[in-house]
Design a protein that fits this description.
Strand order of the largest sheet: 4-3-2-5-1-6-7
Bound molecules: NADP nicotinamide-adenine-dinucleotide phosphate
Protein name: Dehydrogenase/reductase 2
Keywords: Oxidoreductase, Signal
CATH architecture: 3-Layer(aba) Sandwich
InterPro entries: KR_dom (IPR057326), NAD(P)-bd_dom_sf (IPR036291), PKS_KR (IPR013968), Sc_DH/Rdtase_CS (IPR020904), SDR_fam (IPR002347)
GO biological process, one term: electron transport chain
Number of domains: 1
CATH topology: Rossmann fold
Distance between the termini: 31 Å
Radius of gyration: 17 Å
GO cellular component, one term: nuclear envelope
């Protein structure tokens, strides 16, 4: 049912999962806390993924951006390079094995290794009942890897399959962090609240859903993609070298006890 798309392919990606980090051996930062590192960010031509790609590059990493559409990749690469950042890009639909392999190859072109993998690509939430969701829907959800959602903690009745897939990512984070610890690979998960992107427009349009979600907004504002990006950079950095298996909400409130 919930199939984890094989961006998690250990032979190719050293660190893997939504937000995954190989620990620094030297801790040396020449231009920034992520200097001399290579990051791969899926779904990074818009929204949260683009903000993460920009921030990791601003902090010194070489970033490989990707998404399904060539024109979006070209636009994002041109924009980020225009800002003086070290980025390259390639088309990668995370549900397609050949695309994932091309993405890895592109990243390896730079320096022969991948230090950080941010699996951000998501799909539009199905609005409807969980039991009514077709097999096709569940298969599609399988391509969403480890950027979770506050819907994992606070499920909304109209986002059944989405809630479940995002909750599964919390468990995947914990399990992978244990499995990969012996290889010194840390695995963490960003849990965004409501962030102002194209993706969340579906929530804004649904007045009842928006009102109910709004009740949980502690800081009384919608989040911005940049609110998520700083945490990702921190978790990639050596400052987070003893943090693994965590699911961290960026939601303007806490969903934990
Ligand atoms: N926005 C929110 O309120 C919110 C809240 C909680 C969690 N999240 C999670 O955050 C992640 C990003 O959401 P967002 O709001 O930033 O979305 P967004 O603004 O719609 O951007 C999505 C990005 O992913 C790409 N993409 C979509 N499907 C893809 C696929 N199958 N393979 C590769 N790339 C794909 C898109 O480009 P192309 O069209 O070119 O592929 C685009 O670059 C998702 O996992 C989502 O579930 C978002």
């Amino acid at each position: 049912m919930l199939r984890v798309a094989a961006l998690v392919h250990w032979g190719l990606f050293r660190p893997c999962t939504g937000l995954s980090v190989r620990m620094s051996s030297s801790g040396v930062a020449q231009k920034g806390i992520l200097a001399n590192r290579v990051a791969v960010v899926t779904g990074s031509t818009d929204g949260i993924g683009l903000a993460i790609a920009r921030r990791l590059a601003q902090d010194g990493a070489h970033v490989v951006v990707s998404s399904r559409k060539q024109q979006n990749v070209d636009r994002a690469v041109a924009m980020l390079q225009g800002e003086g950042l070290s980025v390259t890009g390639t088309v990668c639909h995370v549900g397609k094995a050949e695309d994932r392999e091309r993405l890895v190859a592109k990243a390896l072109e730079h320096s022969g290794s991948v230090d950080f993998l941010v699996c951000n690509a998501g799909v539009n939430p199905l609005v409807g009942s969980t039991l009514g969701a077709s097999e096709k829907v569940w298969d599609k959800k399988g391509a969403v890897i480890l950027i979770s959602s506050i819907a994992a903690y606070i499920p909304h009745v109209e986002l059944g399959a989405y809630n479940v897939s995002k909750t599964a990512l919390l468990g995947l984070t914990r399990t992978l962090s244990l499995e990969l610890a012996p290889r010194n690979i840390r695995v963490n998960c960003l849990v965004p609240g409501i962030i102002d992107t194209d993706f969340s427009k579906v929530l804004h349009k649904n007045k009842a859903l928006w009102t109910s979600l709004n009740e949980n907004l502690g800081l009384q504002r919608i989040g911005q993609p940049e609110d998520c990006a700083g945490l990702v950079s921190f978790l990639c950095s050596s400052d987070a070298s003893y943090i693994s298996g965590e699911n961290i909400a960026v939601a303007g409130f806490s969903s934990r006890l």
